[in-house]
Design a protein that fits this description.
about 325 residues, alpha/beta, Dihydrodipicolinate Reductase, domain 2, seven-stranded mixed β-sheet, globular, binds NADP nicotinamide-adenine-dinucleotide phosphate
Length: about 325
Amino acid sequence: MLKVGIIGASGYTGGELLRFLQNHPQVEIVAVTSRQYHETPIKKIHPHLRDSDLVFKDIAASAMDADLIFTATPHGASMKLVPEILETGTRVIDLSGDYRFDDVKTYEKWYGFSHENPQEAVYGLPELYREEIKKANLVANPGCFPTGALMATLPLAKEKIVENVIIDSKTGVSGAGITPTSVTHYPNCSDNVTPYAIINHRHMPEIEQELSKISPVKVSFTPHLVPVIRGILSTVHTFLTEEISSSELELIYQKYFQKEPFVRILEEGEIPALSAVRGSNYAHVGSFQIDQHGRAVIISAIDNLVKGASGQAVHNMNLMCGFDEKESLDIYGMHP
Ligand SMILES: NC(=O)c1ccc[n+]([C@@H]2O[C@H](COP(=O)([O-])OP(=O)(O)OC[C@H]3O[C@@H](n4cnc5c(N)ncnc54)[C@H](OP(=O)(O)O)[C@@H]3O)[C@@H](O)[C@H]2O)c1
């Protein structure tokens, strides 16, 4: 059995890690941390996990006796925890942005403070780095928007038929984590659509980093908060550098993702729906329509807490530990 610990288990991604790991046949959860809920049974905070006897502890990673630790902690907090864990020989999957950038200066520019503890990490997008993830000691789990955006753009970069993309994303409120703010306060976000970080969201350089390793691509990205709890729907607009038909475009995606267990390519004209992926680790990619001016529109849908965070983290754990990569994740979404 793989002994697993979760730091930040009282948050939203921590709760989702618990939901998937509870029934994983090769995993024993040995410790779950929360500073504010020390000695509280997890079902008091995650009421859906009724049958769990786990209790939150405010303990250091060194006291966990784990083979692998998930750090489901905010950026800035992870970098204070991860190096110490790695020193003890325990592998880490970090869900924050702290280890996603190849160049620490890019991190510092977009996150606005110095990185205290840079480490070598593998970017944890299985569709790109499956073999590297298997051997990694530290996996930097991708951001939620980048995951959705990359599902909709990687095949274009691979074919080198794109130079610029405009990504317009709509996200559910759980993307902001468990702590309420004035933006996520119900009267402010319900019945409303709120664009934010219109030209300077920190997930933009993450998307650009990964696409540009394949082919130089300029990324423009604007997120919007919409009144749903889960999900990210990304609409990608781009003028392709080659004239191709919609069906050829769909075929490019079919071929690129054909062996991927968690990506489903919809037929030309079919539109991905948040409700079809909610609760699941699947990404749906569709549309593949090209207008009279040559603008191609590709749309992806993911659950930000699952494929965009904890499901992808469990996928990475399965790869790192040689388990069946679909173990405990092979469930459909919750339509309607
Ligand atoms: N929400 C999403 O859709 C999403 C998607 C992809 C990635 N992420 C990333 O995943 C990470 C967790 O996100 P989340 O949405 O789960 O956040 P969250 O709901 O705010 O939970 C984070 C948890 O971390 C704990 N924590 C905070 N500071 C800590 C520290 N210094 N040391 C130890 N524990 C600390 C807190 O628990 P206690 O206060 O009880 O200790 C809190 O419950 C973030 O880096 C986020 O950017 C989130």
